[in-house]
Specification:
The protein is mainly β. Helices cover 0% and strands 48% of the residues. It has no helices and 11 strands.
Length: 189
C-alpha cells in the first residue's frame, strides 16, 4: 500500500492572492496483478553431493553416471491479486568459472587432485539444461522455463523447481575429486 501526499488540484488566484483551493489527499492501494516471488533461504546456497562413481560406470563419450542426484530451487510467491495472472518462471544457470559457457556441461574445477574427463549435467524434466550468462532479461541465451506459479489463489504459495545432476563423460577419465560451481538467475514474466 502506498500513501500519496496531499496534491493541490485547483487553485484560484486573483492578483497575488489565493481566493480558493481544493486539495485532494488519500491513500492509493496498489495490489499487483501477479505475485512477487522470492528464493527461499534454503535455496540460496545449494550443495549437491554427487557421491563416488566408478570411472568404469560411465562408458562412452556423452554417457552419464548411472544415478542422478536430486535437488531443487524453492520459491515463495505472494501478493498476487485474486483473479490476477500467474507468473511464468524462467531460470538461467551460469557456469561460475566460465560465465560465457553456453553448453549443457558444467566443467569440474581445475584443482590439484581433480578428476578429468568428466563434467556435470543438470536436468530439468529429463532434459539437460544449457548454461548462459547471468541475466534476468527475457530470452537470455540459456534461459529456460520452469513453468508457472501455482494456480488458484492468484499464484500465491510455495513453488519447487525439481532438478537432477549427473556426471557426464567428456574424455578419458582419471580418478580424483570432483567439484563444480554454478549460480542461478530467476526471472518472472
Amino acid at each position: 500500500m502506498l500513501a500519496s501526499p496531499t496534491i493541490q488540484f485547483i487553485s484560484l488566484v486573483y492578483p497575488a492572492t489565493v481566493i480558493a483551493e481544493v486539495n485532494i489527499a488519500g491513500t492509493i492501494v496498489v495490489t499487483p496483478n501477479s505475485p512477487t516471488c522470492t528464493v527461499t533461504s534454503s535455496s540460496k546456497n545449494i550443495s549437491v553431493p554427487m557421491g563416488t562413481v566408478s570411472r568404469n560406470a560411465i562408458t562412452g563419450p556423452g554417457s552419464v553416471s548411472p544415478t542422478a542426484q536430486s535437488f531443487g530451487i524453492d520459491l515463495t510467491c505472494s501478493g498476487g491479486r485474486s483473479g490476477g495472472l500467474a507468473n511464468n518462471i524462467y531460470v538461467t544457470l551460469t557456469d561460475q568459472a566460465n560465465p560465457s559457457n553456453t553448453s549443457d556441461i558444467l566443467p569440474l574445477t581445475n584443482q590439484p587432485g581433480s578428476a578429468t574427463g568428466v563434467g556435470i549435467q543438470v536436468f530439468y524434466n529429463g532434459s539437460a539444461v544449457h548454461f548462459g550468462q547471468a541475466s534476468d532479461t527475457f530470452g537470455n541465451p540459456g534461459q529456460w522455463s520452469a513453468g508457472s506459479t501455482l494456480p488458484g489463489a492468484a499464484g500465491n504459495g510455495s513453488y519447487h523447481i525439481p532438478l537432477t545432476a549427473q556426471y557426464v563423460k567428456t574424455g578419458n577419465i582419471t580418478a580424483g575429486s570432483a567439484a563444480a560451481y554454478a549460480t542461478f538467475t530467476m526471472s518472472y514474466h
